Amino acid sequence: MQLVFATNNLNKLKEVQALIPSNIKLLSLKDIGCFEDVPETRNTIEGNATQKAEYIKEQYGFDCFADDTGLEVGALNGAPGVYSARYAGEQRSTQDNMNKLLEELTSKTNRNAQFKTVVALHLNNNLRTFTGICKGEITKTKHGDKGFGYDPIFKPNTFNETFAEMDLSLKNSIGHRGKAITKLVEFLKSI
């Protein structure tokens, strides 16, 4: 089986490649000649994942899957959520996003948060979604240099380290993206 993973994020690609069985050939957007920004203009995480998968199927004809992830912070009524990648502005700066979030939580005692990933699979002209959630809290300072995005300020429940301090195999086993991709892989094995 051959599937396109509709992302230009090399960190995501690396994470997902570690979870996909070797009998599934994973292609990147670069592999299929897709160099434009894939639209993600919906107002939900599910909507963006679905929109990206549908776009690749319609424009390039490949069976594919796409994901969208948001960090949902309780004290901020679920923000940044669907706007996580551009929380501090359209420049999509990871550092600016983390700094803005930490600043907004300065006076908050509730630092509970969750990462939510939705994977949309477009296979044989059918669309399915798979969701993974990882609950935790936002730290007061950045820790670690692994991972990407908000990983240096997100500490999963029952762990003393942030995602950015964990090795990839541990992060994948407990993380939101890993959970969603595991559900995807289980589905692919069942068909």
How is this structure best described in words?
This protein is an alpha/beta fold and 191 residues long. The protein has a single domain (2-190), classed as Alpha-Beta Complex (Maf protein), CATH 3.90.950.10. The protein is built from 5 helices and 7 strands. The protein has helices spanning 10-17, 45-60, 94-104, 168-174, 176-190, and strands at 2-5, 25-27, 64-73, 80-81, 112-123, 126-138, 154-156. Strands 1, 2, 3, 4, 5, 6 and 7 form a 7-stranded mixed sheet that branches. A hairpin with a 6-residue loop joins strand 3 (64-73) and strand 4. Helix 4 crosses helix 5. The longest helix has 16 residues, at 45-60. The N and C termini lie close together (11 Å). The model has no long low-confidence stretch (mean pLDDT 94).
Topology, element by element:
Elements: E1 2-5, H1 10-17, E2 25-27, H2 45-60, E3 64-73, E4 80-81, H3 94-104, E5 112-123, E6 126-138, E7 154-156, H4 168-174, H5 176-190
Helix pairs in contact: 4-5
